[in-house]
Fold this protein.
Amino acid sequence: MDKKPSSWISHIEAFVDSSRPPKQQAANVDAIAALVKNDLLTLEALVRDMELYLTTSDHSIRARGILLLAEILNCLMSKPLDGASISSLVEFFTSKLADWQVLRGALIGCLALLRRKKNVGMVKSSEARAVAESYLMNVQVQSLAVHDRKLCFEVLQCLLEVYPEAVEMLGDDLVYGICEAIDEEKDPRCLMLTFHLVEILARVFPDSSGSVASFAGDLFDILSRYFPIYFTHPRSDDLDITREELSMALMHAFCSTPFFEPFAIPLLLEKLSSSLPLAKLDSLKYLNNCIQHYGTDRMIKHAKAIWSNLKDVILNHSPHKTLFSTSELAGNMESEENQIAKEALICLQTAILHLDSLEKNPILSFIVEDEDIEMKFGLVSNEGTGTGISIESRRQLSAVGNILSVSSKASMSGCTRVFQKFFPRLMNILEISASSSSNGCNTNNGTSSLNFGALYLCIQLLASFRELILTSQDFSPQVITVQDGWWCMLQHFSGPLAHALGSALMGARSSELVNNNTGHEHAIYEVKGLQVLATFPGCYLPTSEDVYEYILVIFMSIATERFEDAFLWKLSVKALIEIGSFIEKYHDSYRGISFNRIVVERIVSLFQQDDSTMPLALKLDAISEIGTIGVDYMSRVIKLLEEAILSKFLAVCVEGRLEAAEILVPLLECYSNRVLLWCYTSGNFDEVAMQFALCIWNQMESITIFDKDAKIQDLFDRMMTTMKLLVGGCAEENQSLIVRKAYSVLLSTSFLSEESLPFSSSKLEGLQVTPDFVNLSWRDEWIVSLFASVVIALLPQTPLPDVKLLLNVLTTFLLKGHLPAAQALASMVNKWHVNIDKSEVPNAYTLDEAIEMILERSLLSVQSSSNLGKSDLLNKDERMLSCLCLLNNNSSFQSNAVVGLAWIGKGLLMRGHEKVKEIAMLLLQYLLSNPYKELHSDASGSGDSLDVHTSLATSAADAFHVILSDSEVCLNKNFHAMIRPLYKQRFFSSMMPVLLSSIKQSCSSSMRVALYRAFAHVISDAPLAAVVAEAKKILPSLMDSLAMLSEDVLNKDLIYSLLLVLSGILMDDNGKEAIIENINTVISDLIRLIFYPHMMLVRETAIQCLVAMSALPHARIYPMRPQVLRAVSKALDDRKRVVRQEAVRCRQAWVSMA
Amino acid sequence: MVTGLINANPIVYERKARQVRSAPTNIDEYADEPIDQQEIFDHIRDIKDPEHPYSLEELKVVTEDSIEVNDKQSYVRVTFTPTVEHCSMATVIGLCLRVKLMRSLPSRYKVDVRIAPGTHATEAAVNKQLNDKERVAAALENPNLSEMVNECLAPTFA
């Protein structure tokens, strides 16, 4: 300590010097605090050495000194200190509170000491009281600056929270002092604290004879000035306080003590009638909270006032739109109006619940006896039967409905009273008599539309009643043991009501429903009413069994007959599903039986009939919806669908009824999109999928002869997709089950079963020589395709049987141009197991061997069918290539081989295998092979072979697209492909130099076109970031390829993607440099593309690129300006509007640069 | 310069919602989309009034109906209504309209900009001035005027 006294003294000096920057001063504090913390300096020594600074008569130095000490204490919050030093420090700071020049330091010091935790030495409670006393005597809070005020409030808060018993003794002095301190506060940060202060203060003095009780008026007077909070600071403000937070804090302060009641309630009720929506909303929220906090005794006397105020708000602010539950736009955008109504209803509910004394609920009585309600009720419930309800009465209607439903939802007693009062009258208006006969449906003598107002209210009542039973049932199992009067009433009425609703629903003509909204509304509430009646829980069902069944029958008849009216149909199906889910949820087996009988059976039989009256899509909708009710239902639906699919499949493939395919495709779609999805979420996917996949394979096995025409591409694709989904979602063991099954079926194909197993090598040879000799039956084709789908979707770890054979078969099909086979092969090589133990499986291939074999097969087979011997050529690649080129008359083979290679390359690339390079080189050589050389040697049929070559080169170029693009059909995440990160980048960077150099070397134009095509595919499919990084190298070729490819109409999509690459380059700093270097070509190429006739997007993008280029350095682009302007002016007359608009922008951009 | 504003307190009308053209589902690449009223209106609706921070659309100086266009005959006529009768800004507004259309339409178009009959004190004079090529060109040579025009047109290119 003695060694370097000067070092920390200098820190003190630096801090006291107020001219230093604040950052440096903070560093000084930290330095000293660190010394103390590490016991290199004791606190006593520090204070002793600072004596001069702490006691000098120079105010500024003293203030700085004390501030330093306080800040150091602040840093030592967690360092244990002994009681004596804390005492002396507290005493010191307490006394300094009287010294206004050093107040800030004193406050910070007090705060730092008061905030100390027990384990590191706390301030004693007597000392805390001394602090409070000194504070009350000396500090004039409101005369201080914001920062100091905030500190003052924090000190107070700390005292109240940590030493309540110490400060409680101060009594009135404390409360008065706080009143004085918080009076007229305006800063939001401080306000948050003051509101909180009041809240804690009320906690410290809870007694009715306490100080808060006596000062309640004054305190509330101070608080009430802030209500409602008006705060318009933007959110980005550094205060970081929102209006909502302030309002919440104030609300808590309001609710903190019941002594505020005489002042708060009148104020809130008064503000409730304010014209400011915000004030209304706030008062409702506050009122709601206050009712809960002030207690019933205090609030009961306000009941009448609260009710009448709430009534006004609800009646005047109820939204009229909520009646349209169909229109979605009202729902998501909650207007202030809606919020007010919502808050008011919540408040009403609280009031009903809380203001309930001596079994007498004043609010409820008010509601039931209210004249306004009575009047409105009469008014709206008699309002027009059907068309043309004015917005105003709509509003009234929803208001009354909401009030009634809230009051009946609140409690059993409320429900009883409301029900007794209103329900009979509603029934009266609806002309429903409580006849017990089930044929009471004729009461509304022919007029099929019910009174809408009454209907609405009635349904609201029933719904809230049902909700009440549902919620109270959770607490006590027997709610309605006593058969109340209203309960009997409900039982009496429910039957006729259901009949009336049902007949109204059936009577409404569909044209009415389509044409106007009122029809829709009627339907909504009629359906809802029936649904509510049918979903009362268990023994509380007011309706008898046959009424319940009647409801189901009504819905079913709509679902089966009224399908041309989509709205009504959807409503009733939804209602059925709701009823079903309700039964499922409450395990109501008794009603479940009739539900099954009436609904499920009916829909099932409907589905099984092949009558064409009901559209298939709706049938599928209904049945898949039914399935979502529960597992049992779904398993039924699944069975049904599977049967249907299999039978239709038979119909198509064996009997050749092509029209069945039109049914089969949507069936499959429904199955794979909805059913499988549901199974996936509910977790029994594996079993379902495995069963069905095996079923399909069994079916395939049993069908021996396929109809000739049974190859419909759409159906084919759907079937394969379904199979992939089925297999892809299964676990490993199920997959291997499916694979084995599929394999056994595969072996039964005609081309494999002709010779006995084991598969002889001579057979293989035979296949090799002429791959298309195998005249495939349709069955074989189906089987191979489905088998390929299975292979595509397998997990990597699922074992495949007899890989050698599979490779052979698939390769053969690949050469026949069978795309799924190629994809399956690609999936196989992609997921190939690397670590196969050779000793265990002796004839297993390694991946390399497999690839080698595929390559040999696919290429050598072509060769051997030509007349060349194998031995003539030296290099393998050269050999393969030349034979391909000679094979002019067998072009489809070559293209097929190229496509197959591309897919296999893709599979290899995705797993990051080296062999992909070999394949890429092979593809490149197809591109590079010069057809003219061959033409010279081959005198005959030159034109023909040229065509062949170009098509081959084109498919080789397109192979790059296959390799780099993402496929939805195979090799993706869903089908468990192995995907190395950044594989596209890797391919891009390895291929790009090769492609660029071969473009440079190429001599013939047709070869160039092919090369550019490949190049275009590679750069447009590679990730943009990788391309942009190479911008300098590729830009010239990019421009050339744009120019070259734009000659052919067929390339328009490719050109568009190239332009997108170019615009990506334009957005990058690195890329911009490259553009500037080639500015002439870029601009002239873009100008040419402005007039590209075949695609609007190309023209538009080209102009957008030019706009972006106008921001490049002036000196470089200025020379191009006339050229660009001339072109763009012409584009102003483009045939497409979008292009013209871009041209206007572009022209302006280039004109204004001058 | 005039010290006070000519129309210190203009009525501001609500902006019409931008009509989004429904994109046809199958786009025929080679079909023509002729220039129509709405397109012309889209060009000029955002021009800023020379003395207020409002667009001509908001002040109802131009409306969609005040535009006549015939794409086949390459002719367009815009009739605008100054906010007050004695508005000396009418010429500037007209100049803005003309310049904007000149820059946005193909060169084959003949542009005619007029004041709505009976809405301005010196209607004939302004009309003559606006449709005189030489005078328009001369006006644009004036750096003050051209700066003003460019400022008014700036929002239309956003």
Remarks:
- The mean pLDDT of chain A is 78.
- Chain A touches chain B at residues 1093-1096, 1129-1130, 1132-1133, 1135-1137, 1140-1141, 1144-1145, 1147-1149, 1151-1152 (CB under 8 Å).
- Residues 531 and 940 of chain A are 82 Å apart (CA to CA).
- Chain A has 58 helices and no strands.
